[in-house]
Amino acid sequence: MTDRDRAASCQGPYGVEGDPGDCGDPVRFEVSRHRRTPLRVCPVHLGPALLLAEGVLWPPGISLIR
Ligand SMILES: [Zn+2]
Fold first, then answer.
1. Within 13 Å of residue 28, how many CA atoms lie on the same side as its CB?
2. Pairwise CA distance, residues 47 & 18, whole Å
3. Nearest to residue 26, comparing CAs of 54, 4, 48?
4. Is the dihedral of CA 3, 4, 10, 14 positive or negative?
5. Which terminus of the chain has a smaller tally of CB atoms within 10 A, N or C?
6. 46 CA distance to ligand 1 centroid (A)?
7. In the β-sheet with 39-41, what is the strand arrangement from edge to edge?
8. What is the pLDDT confidence band of residue 1, given thresholds at 50, 70 and 90?
9. Is the pLDDT of residue 30 over 70?
10. Counting Cβ atoms within 10 Å, is residue 66 exposed (0-12), middle (13-18) or buried (19+)?
11. How far is C-alpha 20 from the chain's CA centre?
12. pTM here?
């Protein structure tokens, strides 16, 4: 339950490990990453996540999840 709640909240600004974001907005997109867990972000943080998160594939793999 707790994991599911956390997964439903944006990890923005851009999901840096050890420095989780406090955005908390509902997740809309999942960004695939190389050998890392996918990053789940809201629309506002999709751009920053693509450009700044570690391990983002290029071209990016983005899934609309809700
Ligand atoms: Zn966000």
1. 9
2. 20
3. 4
4. positive
5. N
6. 8
7. 39-41, 29-31, 62-64
8. very low
9. yes
10. exposed
11. 10
12. 0.77
CA–centroid distance, 9 to ligand 1, in Å, is 8
Distance of CA 48 from the midpoint of ligand 1 (Å): 9
- Site of tokens 């406090």: 22
Q: What span, in angstroms and rounded, lies between the C-alpha atoms of 18 and 60? A: 23
- What is the rounded CA–CA span in Å between residue 48 and residue 1? 28
Are 7 and 41 spatial neighbours (Cβ–Cβ below 8 Å)?
no
How remote is the CA of residue 24 from the centroid of ligand 1, in Å?
6
The DSSP symbol for 33 reads B
H helices within 8-54, ranges in order? 43-52
Structure tokens at 17: 């490990």
